[in-house]
Amino acid sequence: MTWTYTPGGVTDQDDIRSALGDTESSAPTSERLEDEEIARFLTLYGSAPAATVAAAKALMAKLSRRATEKSVGGLQLVYAQRIEGLQYLIGQLTTAASGLAMPYCGGISQGTVAAVEADADRVQPAFRRGMLDNPRAS
C-alpha cells in the first residue's frame, strides 16, 4: 500500500486528504488512509465530495478500534477528540455533498413543452394526457 500527499495538490486524493487532515506521512498506518483506499472510494462514489464522506467514515472506524486514551510516560494520546472531530466533519461534509443535487422541474413553460415534444430523438413517455380517453364516448 502507498501513501502520498502534495500540499495544494490538484488531485481529488490530495483534496480528500486535506479535508480529513490526513496529511502526515509519519502517522501510523492504523491512523491514516492509504492511496488505494481513497481511490476505491472515488471509484465507488463517483465524486470527490461523496468519497470524502466515505473516507472520513473509514478513518473514524479505524480510530474507533483504538483505545480512547493512551499514556506512555509523560505522553498522552487522546483518540476520542479525533473521533469527535471526524463525527462533526462527517456531518458538515454530508450537508455540503447533499447540496450538490439540484431538482429539475421541466415543462413549466409552453415553449419548453413544445420544444421537448418536437424532439424526434426523445424517448416517448409511457403515459400521456388523454391516453385513456374513449373517442366513442361522447
Would you mind describing this structure in some detail?
By secondary structure, the protein is mainly α. The chain is built from five helices and two strands. The chain has a domain at 12-98. A hairpin with a 2-residue loop joins β1 and β2 (75-78). The longest helix has 20 residues, at 79-98. The model has no long low-confidence stretch (mean pLDDT 85).
Write the layout of secondary structure elements.
Layout: H1 12-20, H2 35-45, H3 48-64, E1 69-72, E2 75-78, H4 79-98, H5 110-118
Antiparallel strand pairs: 1-2
Helix pairs in contact: 1-3, 2-3, 3-4
H/E topology pattern: HHHEEHH
**Total count of strands:** 2
Major sheet: 2 strands, antiparallel
Mean pLDDT: 85
Helix/strand/pairing category: mainly alpha
Radius of gyration: 25 Å
Helix content: 40-55%
Shape: elongated
Percent strand equals 5-15%
Q: Segments where pLDDT lies below 50 for 5+ residues?
A: none
| N- and C-termini, Cα separation | 75 Å
Number of helices: 5
If strands are numbered along the chain, what order do they take across the biggest sheet? 1-2
Notable characteristics:
138 residues, mainly alpha, two-stranded antiparallel sheet, 6% strand
What would you say about this model in short?
By secondary structure, the protein is mainly alpha-helical. Helix content is 48%, strand content 6%.
